[in-house]
Amino acid sequence: MVFTLAFTGLVTAFMMTLLTPLVPSLPAILNVSAEDSQWAVTVTLLAAAVATPIAGRLGDLYGKRRMVLILLVLVLAGSVVAFFADGLLPLIVGRALQGAGIGVIPLGISILRDVLHRDRLGGAVALVSATLGVGGAVGLPVAAAISQYLDWHFLFVLSGLLAAVGFVLVLVFIPVSTLRASGTFDVLGAIGLGVALVGILLGISKGNSWGWDSPLTLGCLGGGLLVLLAWGVFERRISSPLIDLRVAARRTVLLTNLASVTVGFAFFASTVVLPQLLEAPPETGVGLGQPMLVASLCLMPSGLVMWAMSPLATRLTRARGARTSLVLGIAVIAVAYLIAVFLMTEIWHMVLIATAVGAGVGFAYAAMPTLIMAAVPATETAASNSLNSVMRTLGSTLASAVLGVVLASHLIGSGETATPSSDGFQLAFIISGAAAVAGVLIAVFIPRHHRAYTKASLPDADDTRAADLSKAGDR
């Protein structure tokens, strides 16, 4: 069961970076402008952000296994549509369907809570949580190799086969969900949250190309925030909300989600900045002049070490608590970017930085689901983990927008040889490190122990002892 859920997590995470190596070539391939071609990437992010919390709530209500199977079918359908795509519109549709599949990861973590013994749960959660980063980092060189040596449509043959294998594994090895939440699905809440997230994320992700002071950008951001506020008021007044904001406002959940934004920012920064530095032409005196495939291989250790950190993070969490693991992980990321400011002139520098960031993310990703599940009811595990995943996505979107502005405003050279300057890369590393430092400051305020909550999805040792003492007193 652990292998199956880890595999499906890797498959769906791979969808997020599937087209990354093709981004520079998409305008020529699809015969569209560079700005229009970006929609094939942006739509995947938007679909993931919108579908993840909806899939989480549906999983709590109607069965997590069932929703995992549905999401894998969507990934398979998206692969088929994209395989036959010769234009931008069908490719966007296919990529949107693939992006919806990222909700498999928080659902998988929630399934583990239902089917595993407590003693094995921590390591399994850490492993599956890490797949969010591992799938992208390890899949990147695979996608680069296919893009470089085969027709780009074969990317979707691979993604479709992986989704089909994952579907069969889940069907065979994952038991039917028996723990269900009461209530009904909040359709209006789902629509409201979807509109709000699309508006906010679209404004952030397209602000660089549209202009941050353009009516379109301001309209998306302002409209998204207004809808989000109205959605929050609505959710607090209904009996069966999409996301229980009273649970989300608990100190442990709230601070963990805020820290998740900084982790998402810092991790995505490495996938934005390091490839540009590796692939930039050396004639400018900044770039390392590596081909796409080599640059992808340089980032692969980040994913591998992220996975390797899972058992270490589990041991640390058992010994010192999940908060300690989260603080340590984000601190490692901050140190990695501090080193990057001074070491950015050799290929091994990039490998070192990517590996250090991956190690830190491995500790952080392992800790966040554990913190969330210790503070939410068992019937809201999937919805709460899905919200945490959305917060990571928000951080990634912010990183893409902020660092895009920074690098674009520090160009040297001209024409096709224009590349960010050394100062631009250093500033990007400083901003990424500052985001990690902010994450550490947030994480240290997460309560080390919380009030005994005997219906927690994953009660900690202190809560379990409190419940046992309460029962003994009753007897």
TrEMBL record:
The keyword Phosphoprotein does not apply. It is found in: Cell membrane. Residues 1-451 form the Major facilitator superfamily (MFS) profile domain. Keywords: Membrane, Transmembrane, Transmembrane helix. It is a multi-pass membrane protein. Its main location: membrane. The chain crosses the membrane at residues 37-55, 67-85, 91-112, 124-146, 152-173, 185-204, 216-234, 254-273, 293-314, 326-345, 351-378, 390-412, 424-446. GO terms for molecular function: transmembrane transporter activity. Pfam families: MFS_1 (PF07690). GO terms for cellular component: plasma membrane. PANTHER family: BLL0718 PROTEIN (PTHR42718:SF35), MAJOR FACILITATOR SUPERFAMILY MULTIDRUG TRANSPORTER MFSC (PTHR42718). This is MFS transporter. It comes from Herbiconiux oxytropis.
